Structure formats: structure tokens, C-alpha cells
């Protein structure tokens, strides 16, 4: 069955949509058929302002010529090369460019195809790292409540979003969770980093004491927790995690799948917060969301631990058919060029104060119980309807779409993360329209 480009298709049954209320959607589909810069075009010809950079990924906006041209050029020149025991230039060039913008000390890049794969790759590298160094007892992993690390079994094991875990069985053994840092009583409506909550990092000491440091491989956190509703790290919190993990020989992994590539106004959140982990996971903005690609960045210390034994030996038994795929690599190079040429990370930093004032102007709107922001990301938390959690925010999402803005919701929290090319008038439109939506909510 051919789907008409301009009208809503009449058979939506076969596609089981991810993280979607399929029955609701299929009764009343929302279909995008085009995108350019800050806007999507709907099947019925309306323009929708992208307040979420797709799914936190199209940081340079949509259909950027440098990126689309690089993809078609690479597709025509060489579509695919084996990822194992063979190389091709663009994967190496992209790795070098990534290292150039990464925090000092991050010197190597391992490719995969998504954020979820980046997380599972980093967790596997962490466990294997200790083993190749003769510390094979270090297998425990520590995540955090409300953490989102994708949907692989490793990622949902260290993750802490209840619905993403509870249907899927026993998950990985030997995982502990730090407490989350959402402290609304102390931190509600704070702009930027909250003052209260650094002490929650001390919980890592308690977990270490409970099991013994010689059993623990790694701690993984999002430096700023995105998918759970945009939670900023309290001042001093990440520094404390770094201090405790270093003290005990535990690897610290920052999951920067959302915060990577300028979201906070620096290439990575690690630089923004000035805390350097041992590994960084990234994806999304790596290719501007255009082609699936993820990566793990590691220090020389982590990488070099594997570079031993006979030279022909494979050092790490891990990888994907599409690791460093030529077309994804070409997209990645062109994306980093676009960010650089247009100074988009600096632009995000320059726009951040304007964004902060704009989003906090929604304080006092009906049902709003908290507003949080940092860089070009923000969240508006709504009072849930008793007995019907998520309904109010979902209704806001539907109304926003009707009014021509794309927002995202998680639980009763509205999250926004526009492309870094957004202009001040577009910020006004986004926030002004969201204000009207909030005024109209039951
Ligand atoms: N980690 C984090 C912090 C994320 O926000 C996401 C996706 N939102 C993922 C991992 C998973 O990425 P993907 O959907 O590409 O697998």
C-alpha cells in the first residue's frame, strides 16, 4: 500500500511505533512529511516549530545542505566498508575531529549506532578494562534512580526509570543505584544549577563501603538527566562523584547522548561543568540526528589498557556491522563542520540567558509546579491530575502540536531543547505558544 504524501495514510496498523501510545496515535495520526531549519511540515501542510530538535538530536536544525550533500556524496562514492579488520578514511577523520572538541584527556573513539549501544559499549569496556588489568572482580555497575541510558539490557539495568525496567525481567546482576537529585522542596524554580543536593553524591561512598571497591567497575550518570524530565546536577555533585570514583579506582562514565554537541553551550557537558569522566557516551547530535550513529569516547588510560598481547590479537571482542559506517561518518564530519562554521555551541551559550528568562516567564501559569533550565534546554513540570498521571502533559503536547509547536513530555514534565539555530523571535513564539497552551489546560 502506498502512503499518500499529502494526506493522512489509511493503514497505520503494521508499524508498531516505539515509545508511542499506538492506539491513540492511529486514531488521530500526527504526520510530518518535510523539515527545513527550525520547522517541520505536517501532512496537511502546516508548519510546526521544532522545540525539541527532533528527539534532542537535530542541533543544527533540519535538512542542512552541508550534511545532506556529504551523505549523498559518500553514498555514491562508497556505500559500505567492512567494520572489522578494514578501514576507510572518514571514520578516522571523524574520530580525530571528535577528539579535537572533546574534553582534554579523551583521546579515543569507539563507534556504534545509537545512544543505547553507546551505553552498553561503555559498560562492557568498563568491565573488560578491569579484567585486562588483572582486576576481574570489578564487575558491579552503579547507575542512578530516574537515569535514562537507552533501552539495551545494560542501559535499562543501570537506568532508573521504572516503566522502562519493570516489564523486562531480572536485568543485569550486580547493579546499584544512586538516589536521584530531584529535590523540588528545596530547588523548585531555580535557574540553572541548584544549590541543594550535592550531598547525594556521598551515597556512592556508602555503596562502595557496602560491596567493597574491588567489586565495582563503573558509575554511569547523565551529567544533566534529560529524558526523566531535565534535572540539573546540584552544585558540587559531579565533582564529588569524580572524587569518590577516582579514590576507589572506579571508572566514571558520563552519558552525554543529550548533553553532547552544544546543548549546554559547550561541546560536552563535561567541559561545561569542568568535570572529566573516564568515558563519554554520545549519539544524536553527532550526526545531527540524520543518520544513526553513536560513539564512546575514552581516555588514553582506558584504551591503552587493552593494547597488549600479540599484535595480531583482537584487543576488544566487541563491535557492530555498522561501527563507523562510511555514510554515518560523512554525516558526522559535515555535522561537526556545520557546528563550527556557524559557531553553534557559542550561539547556544549566548542565547542561554534569553532562554532562561523566557522559560521562567511561565512561572505562575496554571498547574506549573517547577521550571528548570540550562544552556538551551528547559523543563516545565505540571501538577499531575490525581489518579491520571501523564494526562495533563500529554494534553499539552497535543494542544501544542495543534498550535504549531513541537514539545516533548515525560510523565507530567514538558521538556524543550530547540535546535541551536533558534532565533530570539522563535524562542518568543515557542514560549508564548506554550503559555497559551498552559492557560487552556484543564
Ligand atoms: N542515553 C541518554 C542519556 C539518552 O537521552 C538516550 C536517548 N534519549 C539514550 C541514551 C538512548 O539513545 P538511543 O535512543 O539513540 O538508543
From TrEMBL:
<dbReference type="InterPro" id="IPR015424">
    <property type="entry name" value="PyrdxlP-dep_Trfase"/>
</dbReference>
<dbReference type="GO" id="GO:0009102">
    <property type="term" value="P:biotin biosynthetic process"/>
</dbReference>
<comment type="similarity">
    <text>Belongs to the class-III pyridoxal-phosphate-dependent aminotransferase family.</text>
</comment>
<protein>
    <submittedName>
        <fullName>Aminotransferase class III-fold pyridoxal phosphate-dependent enzyme</fullName>
    </submittedName>
</protein>
<keyword id="KW-0032">Aminotransferase</keyword>
<dbReference type="InterPro" id="IPR049704">
    <property type="entry name" value="Aminotrans_3_PPA_site"/>
</dbReference>
<dbReference type="InterPro" id="IPR015422">
    <property type="entry name" value="PyrdxlP-dep_Trfase_small"/>
</dbReference>
<keyword id="KW-0663">Pyridoxal phosphate</keyword>
<dbReference type="GO" id="GO:0030170">
    <property type="term" value="F:pyridoxal phosphate binding"/>
</dbReference>
<dbReference type="InterPro" id="IPR015421">
    <property type="entry name" value="PyrdxlP-dep_Trfase_major"/>
</dbReference>
<keyword id="KW-0808">Transferase</keyword>
<dbReference type="InterPro" id="IPR005814">
    <property type="entry name" value="Aminotrans_3"/>
</dbReference>
<dbReference type="GO" id="GO:0004015">
    <property type="term" value="F:adenosylmethionine-8-amino-7-oxononanoate transaminase activity"/>
</dbReference>
<dbReference type="Pfam" id="PF00202">
    <property type="entry name" value="Aminotran_3"/>
</dbReference>
Amino acid at each position: 500500500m502506498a502512503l499518500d504524501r499529502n494526506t493522512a495514510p489509511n493503514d497505520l496498523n503494521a508499524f508498531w511505533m516505539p515509545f508511542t501510545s499506538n492506539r491513540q496515535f492511529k486514531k488521530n495520526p500526527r504526520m510530518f512529511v518535510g523539515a527545513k531549519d527550525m520547522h517541520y511540515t505536517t501532512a496537511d501542510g502546516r508548519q510546526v516549530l521544532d522545540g525539541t530538535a527532533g528527539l534532542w538530536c537535530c542541533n543544527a536544525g533540519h535538512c542542512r545542505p552541508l550534511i545532506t550533500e556529504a551523505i549523498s556524496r559518500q553514498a555514491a562514492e562508497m556505500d559500505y566498508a567492512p567494520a572489522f579488520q578494514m578501514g576507510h578514511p572518514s571514520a578516522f577523520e571523524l574520530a580525530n575531529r571528535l577528539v579535537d572538541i572533546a574534553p582534554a584527556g579523551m583521546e579515543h573513539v569507539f563507534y556504534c549506532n545509537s545512544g543505547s549501544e553507546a551505553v552498553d559499549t561503555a559498560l562492557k569496556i568498563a568491565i573488560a578494562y578491569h579484567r585486562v588489568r588483572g582486576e576481574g572482580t570489578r564487575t558491579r555497575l552503579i547507575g542512578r534512580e530516574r537515569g535514562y541510558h537507552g533501552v539495551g539490557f545494560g542501559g535499562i539495568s543501570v537506568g532508573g526509570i521504572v516503566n522502562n525496567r519493570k516489564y523486562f525481567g531480572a536485568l543485569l546482576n550486580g547493579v546499584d543505584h544512586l538516589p536521584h537529585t530531584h529535590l523540588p522542596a528545596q530547588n523548585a524554580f531555580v535557574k540553572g544549577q541548584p544549590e541543594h543536593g550535592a550531598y547525594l553524591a556521598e551515597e556512592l561512598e556508602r555503596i562502595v563501603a557496602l560491596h567493597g571497591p574491588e567489586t565495582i567497575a563503573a558509575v554511569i550518570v547523565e551529567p544533566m538527566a534529560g529524558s526523566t524530565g531535565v534535572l540539573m546536577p546540584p552544585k558540587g555533585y559531579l565533582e564529588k562523584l569524580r572524587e569518590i570514583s577516582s579514590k576507589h579506582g572506579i571508572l566514571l562514565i558520563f552519558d552525554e547522548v543529550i548533553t553532547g554537541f552544544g546543548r549546554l553551550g559547550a561541546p560536552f557537558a563535561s567541559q561545561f561543568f569542568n568535570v572529566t569522566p573516564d568515558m563519554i557516551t554520545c549519539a544524536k547530535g553527532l550526526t545531527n540526528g540524520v543518520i544513526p550513529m553513536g560513539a564512546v569516547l575514552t581516555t588514553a588510560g582506558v584504551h591503552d589498557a587493552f593494547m597488549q598481547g600479540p599484535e595480531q590479537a583482537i584487543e576488544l571482542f566487541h563491535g557492530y556491522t555498522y561501527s563507523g559506517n562510511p555514510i554515518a561518518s560523512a554525516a558526522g564530519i559535515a555535522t561537526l563542520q556545520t557546528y563550527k562554521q556557524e559557531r553553534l555551541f557559542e550561539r547556544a551559550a549566548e542565547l542561554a540567558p534569553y532562554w532562561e528568562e523566557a522559560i521562567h516567564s511561565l512561572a505562575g501559569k496554571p498547574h506549573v509546579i517547577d521550571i528548570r533550565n540550562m544552556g538551551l534546554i528547559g523543563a516545565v513540570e505540571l501538577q499531575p491530575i490525581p489518579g491520571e498521571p501523564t494526562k495533563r502533559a500529554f494534553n499539552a503536547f497535543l494542544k501544542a502540536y495543534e498550535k504549531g509547536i513541537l514539545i516533548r513530555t515525560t510523565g507530567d514534565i514538558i521538556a524543550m531543547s530547540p535546535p541551536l539555530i533558534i532565533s530570539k523571535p522563535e524562542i518568543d513564539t515557542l514560549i508564548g505558544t506554550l503559555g497559551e497552551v498552559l492557560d487552556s489546560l484543564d
